[in-house]
Structure formats: C-alpha cells, structure tokens
Amino acid sequence: MRSFHTTCLAILFALGAGLASAQQNTLEPVGPAARHIASLSWFVYITFGVVAIIMWALILWVAIRRRGTLAEHEPIDAGGGQEWILTGGFLIPFVILAVIFILGLNTLAAFPVHDNISHAMPQVRVTGHQWWWEVDYLAGPVDQHVKSANEIHVPVGVPVDVELMAADVIHSFWVPQLHGKEDLIPGQPNLIRIQADQPGIYHGQCAEFCGEQHANMKLLVIAQPPAEYQSWLAGQRNEASEPVNGQERAGQEAFMTKPCALCHTIRGTAAQGSVGPDLTHLASRRGIAANMLINNEANLEAWVTHAQALKPGCRMPNVTQFNGNEARMLVHYLQSLQ
Ligand code: CUA
To answer: Does ligand 1 come within 6 angstroms of the Cβ of 217?
Structure first.
C-alpha cells in the first residue's frame, strides 16, 4: 500500500513538473499552430474532467445509498434503468465525441496545407539522421545557402516553412510550444509551418522511436528579432575563421590529419565530409551531440575522445589517434569556430 501511495505521489509530481515547466509544454503555446492545439487540448481535458467527476459521483452514490432488497428493484428489461444506459452510455458520449471530432477537423484545417509540395518554397530544410538534425537555410541563391545542425534560427513573428526529410529511418519533428508532431520520412518530404511570436529558445525532441539514441535527439528553435536573425544568417554565410594563434593552428592541423575531416565539413578548409554535422560555426551553437551536452571545452574534449561512452551506438567514433596535447589543441580550434 505504501509503495502504491508513493507511486501515485510520483505520478502527480511528474505531472505537476511537466505542467510547471515551459520547456516542452503544449499548454504554453507561443505560435498560431500551437495555440490551436492548446485550445483543443484544454477543451478535451475540461470535458473529460467534468465527465469523470459526474461518473465518480454516480459510482459513489450507488455505493453509499440505502440498499433495498432485490425484489424492490425493477428489473432492467421491465423499463427500469434503460434511459440511463441510453443517455449515459450512448447519447452523451456520441454528442461529446462528435463535437471533439468536428473541433479536431477544424484545428487541422487551421494548419496550412501544401497540396503540391513542388510549388512550396521552404525557407529551411531539416533532415533527420540517427541521431542528429541537419539544418539547411535555403534563403537566397544556392551559393548563399548555409548548413548547420541541431538548432533552427527563425525570425520572431514570421511564419517559416520547414521541409522535413530523413536520411535513414523515420524521425519526428516536435517542438511542443510551436506545433504538433510531424514525421520526417525517407523519400517523402513533408512541410510544416512554424511561427514563434516571442523571442526565446524553444526545446524540441525527436518524437518517433528511431533507435538506440532516440531520446538524445534534441533540437532547439531559437527565435530572434528579424534584424538580429538577418545578421546571424549573414555571419553563418561566412567561411570558418582562420586560426589566429599557435594552439588553434595546431588544432586545425590535428583536425585535418586525424579522422575528423573525413566526416565533417568546415567551409573554407579542406575538410568536406558529409557524414556528420557541418562544423563551420560550431562555436556559435549551444549544444553538441544533438543538444545532449552543453557546448563547452570539457564536453567537447570528452565528446571527441569518448563519444561512444557518452552516446553509445552513435556514428561519432572515439577519436584516439592524438599525440600529447593534440586533443586539447583541437578543442581550442573548435571553440574558435564562431
Ligand atoms: Cu530520431 Cu527518434
């Protein structure tokens, strides 16, 4: 009994914590699509709350009312109780479910539908990989497109069409404060229109089981005032900054001569790999390993040398071919890639 109480308390606590945290909360929407979903959710929660209260009140009433003998009760087939079954078991559920169905269709209709995907002009393309997010900014001519990973910058108050693709298995894009879930499917591009009405960082998560590290496939949507967004985008279009001191030069040398350059691109250098995330502006990102870790010196060094211990099964190998303090120099170089 005691463990039952503890479990109930733990569940209530988890629910409370979930509701209190704005990080991934569908009930604290910051954009039009999420607001539609939140309204529908509130309607469903409140309706079902009221139904549950009435139902439990009736059960309680049956349990505590004065009992007569069996003979005093009319049998159901004689007409007693049939209205209850018809009304409570059929009519009321039918009306409630019909209303929710219509409201659900109405919510779906509020999302932009792209009948012909080839005519759509997505501003961002997100490609799901096991287990990270490739992000391509498609504004302007092709030579101005830029690649990044695991965070999506958007201008505040502007609808942004995002094309969703997958490189391996099915993933699902879910940033609860901005929109519902939408799948990323190999060979089947999908579109989603997100809009953030307030500046901020909105946490998202892959919402379709995609293998061992599904839980560590996180993304951030960073909403900035339009001018700030434009200057960020202009900065991203630049090639990587050159190393400015001996440590950074040694780090760049390590990057080019160890396995790193085979899988990663740093624009403006010889590194042109496409297996892992583009690292041209790595230091400007908040997280590494698909936002499993904060992007800082200690985590970078641990990630480079022990990725398989931190995120077992991921494509990033443990890079062990460093001599002396090469790994540390490499991290200095990575941290210079603003
Ligand atoms: Cu990607 Cu789950």
So the answer is: yes
- Whether 277 is in the pocket of ligand 1, judged by its Cβ within 6 Å, is no
Query: pLDDT tens digit string along 251-273?
Result: 999 999 989 999 999 999 999 99
Same domain, 297 and 215: yes
CA of 98 to the centre of ligand 1 (A): 34
Q: Is residue 133 part of a domain?
A: yes
Name which of 273, 276, 264, 274 is nearest 333 in CA terms: 264
For the chain, state the CA radius of gyration: 27
Q: Is the CB of 171 under 6 A from ligand 1?
A: yes
Is there a single domain that holds both residue 266 and residue 334? yes
- Tell me the CA–centroid distance for residue 183 and ligand 1, in Å: 10
Instruction: Provide the whole-model pTM.
Output: 0.84
Domain count, the chain: 2
Beta-carbon contacts of 288 under 8 Å, excluding residues fewer than 6 positions away, are: 282, 294, 295, 299, 300, 303
Output the CA 2–ligand 1 centroid distance in Å: 37
Cα gap 179→185, rounded to integer Å: 18
Contact 170, 183 (CB under 8 A): yes
